[in-house]
Write a structure and sequence with these properties.
The structure holds 2 protein chains of 2 kinds.
Chain A (H helix, E strand, L loop, with lengths): L3 E4 L2 E5 L4 E7 L6 E7 L6 E7 L4 E4 L2 E6 L4 E6 L8 E8 L8 E3 L3 E6 L1
Parallel strand pairs in A: 2-11
Antiparallel strand pairs in A: 1-3, 3-8, 4-5, 4-9, 6-7, 7-8, 9-10, 9-11
Chain B lengths: L3 E4 L2 E4 L5 E7 L6 E7 L6 E7 L5 E2 L8 E7 L2 E6 L8 E8 L8 E3 L3 E5 L1
The chains are: A mainly beta, B mainly beta.
């Protein structure tokens, strides 16, 4: 089955700096790659996603890149702010028909220091 | 946007009892829902796929007789933890893709914190 590896497990940056989180996946059939932000005790919130027919996607300060050949994808957050501090999860899914189950990476705890 | 609710938000029970957790899609229909378990400071682990009108599909290592799933309608899936033990204490979260829409996007419920004494 699919396996998703995420690095680093913790990341500390200064406010205003950029943060990059990387994930690799094992199943080349995976075609959907979302990123979630989770604050303590709360539900994961989708922040950005990318599908396998796209190499890069950007939404304001957040961007995701996908390299299908290498089977890895990355989250880039620019101009980080203290409110970006949270746990970030990548996931991969093989989406067929009307559904596809998400397999999550281990998570990255991002700390943005003021 | 699509909203998924869970009830209860937290529950404390004695060892050996059963606990039922509900997952509802409030403003959309979901033929499929997913159940995850998350231990403290760990990732979300997929437990099972709940299918409306048919049996759930369980992930390897998840006991189907212990974690009973029922998806009786297009807006409700329930997870029953039977004969709960302290090691079942965890954060249980459901998710649902939007049927008929961008079905790869999943919407998560707020989670249920289960504590077994």
């Amino acid at each position: 089955g699919e396996n998703v590896e995420q690095h680093p497990s913790t990341l500390s940056v200064q406010e205003g700096d950029s943060a990059v989180i990387k994930c690799t996946y094992s199943d080349s059939a995976s075609n959907y790659f979302p990123w979630y932000k989770q604050e303590l005790g709360k539900r994961p919130q989708l922040i950005i996603d990318i599908r396998s027919n796209v190499g890069e996607k950007k939404d304001q300060r957040i961007a995701v890149t996908l390299n299908k050949t290498a089977k890895h994808f990355s989250l880039h957050i620019t101009e980080t702010q203290p409110e970006d501090s949270a746990v970030y999860f990548c996931a991969a899914s093989i989406h067929t028909g009307n559904t596809g189950k998400l397999i999550f990476g281990q998570g990255t705890t991002l700390q943005v220091k003021p | 946007g699509a909203v998924v609710s869970q009830h209860p938000s937290w529950v404390i029970c004695k060892s050996g009892t059963s606990v039922k957790i509900e997952c509802r899609s409030l403003d959309f229909q979901a033929t499929t829902m997913f159940w995850y378990r998350q231990f403290p400071k760990q990732s979300l682990m997929l437990m099972a796929t709940s299918n409306e009108g048919s049996k759930a599909t369980y992930e390897q290592g998840v006991e189907k007789d212990k974690f009973l799933i029922n998806h009786a309608s297009l807006t409700l899936s329930t997870l029953t933890v039977t004969s709960a033990h302290p090691e079942d204490s965890s954060f249980y979260i459901c998710s649902a893709p939007l049927a008929g829409g961008r079905t790869d996007t999943q919407y998560f419920g707020p989670g249920t914190r289960l504590t077994v004494l």
